[in-house]
Amino acid sequence: MSVTKKIPQRQCIGCGELKNKKEMIRIIKTPxxxxxxxxxxxxxxxxxxxxxxxxxxxxxxxxxxxxxxxKMSIPSEIYDELEKELIGLESRER
Length: 94
Known about the structure:
This protein has helices spanning 54-62, 65-70, 76-93; strands spanning 9-11, 18-20, 25-29, 35-38, 46-50.
């Protein structure tokens, strides 16, 4: 009898699609209320997952998905910073 390993799934806060956890980017709110991209997926803090595309980030900004997930209001400077980091990550993968 073979045991199939369960692959963790997460829902994107932008488009709402369920995808494998490893395919997505984790955005965290640290205990010090700092918001950053967690590339390792292991940093301490409340996390929200987003697809690796700037389109999903734009949708998350529009529908306030990130604010709901992290349970805090987010200034526009942080959204700009996240968008720059996400574009950097997108270009590295290509």
